[in-house]
Amino acid sequence: MNHKNSIIQTKQSFEASFEDSSFYNKQTRDENHLEKILSMLPIKSKMKILDLGTGTGFLAFPLAQKHVTTTIIGLDIVDKALNQNAQKAKSLDLNNLFFINYDGETFPFDDNTFDMIITRYALHHFPAIEDTFSEINRVLKNDGIFFLSDPAPNDDDTERFVDEYMQMKKDGHIKFYTKQEWLDLGIKFNLHYKDGFKTSIRFPKKKETALEFNDIMSRHPKHVVKGYEIEITDDEIWITETVNNLLFQKITTN
After folding, report:
1. Cα dist. 15→3, 12, 72, 80, 171 in Å?
2. pTM above 0.70, yes or no
3. Which of 150, 183, 210, 238 has the most CB atoms around it within 10 Å of its CB?
4. Could you give the CA distance from residue 82 to residue 115 in angstroms, rounded to a whole number?
C-alpha cells in the first residue's frame, strides 16, 4: 500500500470510529495519563504549540484551558473530528485553540513556527515516519520541544505480533516503535532526548474487526502473546501495551 492510500484508509477508519465516540473514548481516554503529560510539558506564556494528530483534542483542550496565553493548533486529517472540535472550542470560548486539516504529509506551516509540538497515540499511523520527523524538525523552532506518546512492542516481540494484531482493524496502523528507534530518529533530525516515562494502555478491539485473530495467534510464540495480557470477552479482545512518553529538544549545531 502506498503512502496516500494508507492515509486515506486511516482517515476513513477514524471517521467511522468517531461515529461511535463512546467506544473510541474507551480506547483512548486516560485521565491519569493526561495529567502525567500535562505535568511534564515545560509550557511557558505565549508559546505556540502544535498538537499533531489531535483527534478529538484530548490534549489540545486541557492545554488551551490551562494555558490561556498560549496558542494551540490541532492538526489532523479527519474533517469530522476537526469540525466537532472547532464547535466545542467556540462553545467553551477558547479563543486560543484552533483546528486545521491537512493532507497527512506536508505540514501547512512555515519553517520555525512552533515552540512545541506534541503528539499522542498517532505516530504509529504515519506511513513515512522519517518524512514526518523532517516536517517536525522544519516547523519547530530551534530549542523547541517535541513530545511524543505512542505504544511500543514488548522487548521479546521481535517479529512484531503486536503490529499484526493492530493491523486487523484496517485503520492504517503501520508499526509501533521501540524507545531506541525513536531516539535514533531524533538524532537524525536534531531532536535530542531530554526525559521520558513509561505508561501502559489497556486497549479494546471489537471482535468483528479481528477476523484474523486466531491465525495471527498461531503464528507467534505463546510466551510473546502472553506478554500482552490478552483477554477475550463476549464481543471484545483486550490487549495491554507499554507506552513510551518521550521529551526531545531541537538543537541545531552549526
Report:
1. 18, 5, 23, 7, 10
2. yes
3. 150
4. 22
Distance in angstroms (rounded) separating the CA atoms of residues 245 and 36: 10
pLDDT value for 102: 95
Sign of CA dihedral 199, 51, 237, 151: negative
The domain made up of 3-201+244-250 is a member of CATH 3.40.109.10: no
Report domain extents, the chain: 3-201+244-250
Q: Which of 142-156, 182-196, 207-221 has the lowest mean pLDDT?
A: 207-221
